[in-house]
Amino acid sequence: MDQKLRVGILGATGMVGQRFIALLENHPWFEVVTLAASPRSAGKTYEEAVGDRWKMDTPMPEAVKKIVVHNVNEVEEVAKTVDFVFSAVDMSKDEIRAIEEAYAKTETPVVSNNSAHRWTPDVPMVIPEVNPEHFAVIEDQKKRLGTTRGFIAVKPNCSIQSYAPCLAAWKEFGPKELVVTTYQAISGAGKTFKDWPEMVENIIPFIGGEEEKSEKEPLRVLGRVENGQIVKADSPKITCQCVRVPVLNGHTAAVFINFEKKPTKEQLIEKLESFKGFPQEAELPSAPKQFIRYMTEDNRPQVKLDVDYENGMGISIGRLREDSLYDYKFIGLSHNTVRGAAGGAVLCAETLTAKGFITKK
């Protein structure tokens, strides 16, 4: 890449916006040049706008501190400064749909962490190792939007990252039924323990909208492009419960699974460890070398020890064993704000760039 692509972050002051900024520091392809947020942050430097609400473990990058924050609603103003944007805005679904489409119509690609467009038929929802071929639907989306280079692409919910990739790795065995319980970190709600003291020593057995996403979104990821839209897969059937637990980063999933053709444990582990996709083949900057690792210790994966595997971009699976009711059961772990949110979106943008969908304006 001769010259870095100019990137804007919409919703730059929130937790996912901050994670984008942390991940993009010194990125070889992308340079953050524009930050946009709500009108109350507009006109302040990024450092002033965030104040004492910087939630990352690493310090705020010097390069962004003095950037003056734009009003995210001034679409034309923001769009003319960038080649593409990441979207992590905190608004109602209807407002998000409208603003992301408005940016796309300025011929600015939008790579979104939000859920608002995940079921728009011609918007690809991609885990780059699993279904990058869904990006082909962008050509149809552009026709609908009347654009030549502007479009929207999204990544799926953080809750599915710790088990959905296994379904792709095990495709030939025909996964048909899953019972999943996710144990989800508080950063998924944009919070730290300081912001959310009632989470200390507590679990809350409800996360709004999350169970439906966890049951439905894997089917869209495993689906196919047909007649200019994404058609979701018919199987597996998934039922899910989502629980908020007192963990800062890292979503754990406990999964029971039935297959059409029951494989051996060794076959399942081999498929996980050998599974790779476009990001690994193209050696994209944020791609984990080993996307899914299998851990043989009885007490792994653990959040404390394993959440940062492959810089938070890899997935750790353990405790795969036969079950008395189902064929197998296992535990999965993924980093919810890296692979599950900003990092997953950065990898999508790298994939889109490598495939020629994102270029300099």
Could you describe the 3D structure shown?
The protein has 361 residues and is of the alpha/beta class. The chain has helices spanning 15-24, 46-50, 62-65, 75-79, 93-105, 138-145, 164-169, 210-221, 265-274, 278-281, 303-306, 338-354, and strands at residues 5-10, 30-37, 70-71, 84-87, 110-112, 152-154, 175-184, 224-226, 229-231, 237-244, 251-259, 292-295, 315-322, 328-334. The protein is globular and about 60 Å long. The two termini are 14 Å apart. The mean pLDDT is 97.
Summarize the structure.
The chain has helices spanning 15-24, 46-50, 62-65, 75-79, 93-105, 138-145, 164-169, 210-221, 265-274, 278-281, 303-306, 338-354, and strands spanning 5-10, 30-37, 70-71, 84-87, 110-112, 152-154, 175-184, 224-226, 229-231, 237-244, 251-259, 292-295, 315-322, 328-334.
Cross-sheet strand order for the largest sheet: 3-2-1-4-5-6
Task: Report helical residue fraction.
Answer: 25-40%
Average pLDDT works out at 97
Largest sheet: 6 strands, parallel
Give the beta-strand count.
14
Alpha-carbon distance between the two ends:
14 Å
How many separate helices?
A: 12
Pattern of helices and strands = EHEHHEHEHEHEHEHEEEEHHEHEEH
What structural category do the secondary elements indicate? alpha/beta
| Strand-residue proportion | 15-25%
List low-pLDDT spans: none
Radius of gyration: 20 Å
Shape: globular
Secondary structure elements and their pairing?
Elements: E1 5-10, H1 15-24, E2 30-37, H2 46-50, H3 62-65, E3 70-71, H4 75-79, E4 84-87, H5 93-105, E5 110-112, H6 138-145, E6 152-154, H7 164-169, E7 175-184, H8 210-221, E8 224-226, E9 229-231, E10 237-244, E11 251-259, H9 265-274, H10 278-281, E12 292-295, H11 303-306, E13 315-322, E14 328-334, H12 338-354
Parallel strand pairs: 1-2, 1-4, 2-3, 4-5, 5-6, 7-10, 12-13
Antiparallel strand pairs: 7-11, 8-9, 11-14, 13-14
Helix pairs in contact: 1-12
